[in-house]
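Lab meeting, item 3. Inverse folding demo.
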């Protein structure tokens, strides 16, 4: 019975603030579709074309590291910047939801709070963020869906190879159990980083 009571309370809360939630998610989606994704696409395309690298894949990553070391470093810096952008989006979303629940939501205030979070990021935080996103991404799609994380997944050919023999399948299952355990343990790390 408590479940239905809570569901009714949250439904009423959502009805009161539906416009705020719509503004929050719509602004995040528009930012992704028209600014963030085109920006990263343009930068990556420019870097790869300028260095005559047709594409980046698992097959040519060693060649890129050995023959185009400077380009590899630039791509790593771009990846770190992408992590900061994903962190900023998550912070914006959490601050927005928090402000909506407290009847104090404005886009400007959410952007200011997000900027304050970005200024606190250090190099050690980026390392933690990269590990966090690698562990959380398989489960994050349930709660926080963004086109920036959509392409991060284990390639199909690796999954196909890992399911060919019982030993490899066992290794894959153990890997998933460990990632699941660590993912659940770290689930609230990022929200705590944002609100502290």
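The presenter then showed the designed sequence:
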């Amino acid at each position: 019975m408590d479940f239905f009571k809570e569901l009714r309370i949250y439904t009423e809360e959502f009805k009161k603030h539906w416009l705020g939630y719509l503004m929050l998610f719509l602004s995040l989606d528009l930012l992704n579709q028209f600014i963030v994704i085109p920006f990263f696409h343009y930068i990556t395309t420019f870097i790869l074309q300028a260095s005559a690298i047709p594409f980046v894949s698992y097959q040519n990553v060693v060649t890129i590291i050995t023959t185009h070391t400077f380009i590899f470093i630039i791509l790593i810096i771009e990846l770190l910047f992408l992590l900061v952008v994903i962190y900023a989006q998550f912070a914006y979303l959490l601050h927005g939801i928090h402000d909506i629940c407290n009847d104090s939501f404005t886009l400007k205030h959410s952007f200011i709070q997000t900027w304050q979070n970005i200024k606190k990021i250090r190099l050690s935080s980026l390392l933690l963020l990269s590990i966090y996103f690698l562990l959380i991404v398989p489960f994050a799609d349930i709660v926080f869906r963004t086109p920036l994380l959509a392409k991060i997944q284990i390639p199909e050919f690796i999954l196909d190879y890992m399911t060919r023999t019982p030993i490899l399948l066992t290794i894959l299952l153990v890997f998933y159990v460990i990632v699941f355990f660590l993912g659940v343990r770290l689930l609230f790390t990022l929200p705590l980083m944002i609100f502290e």
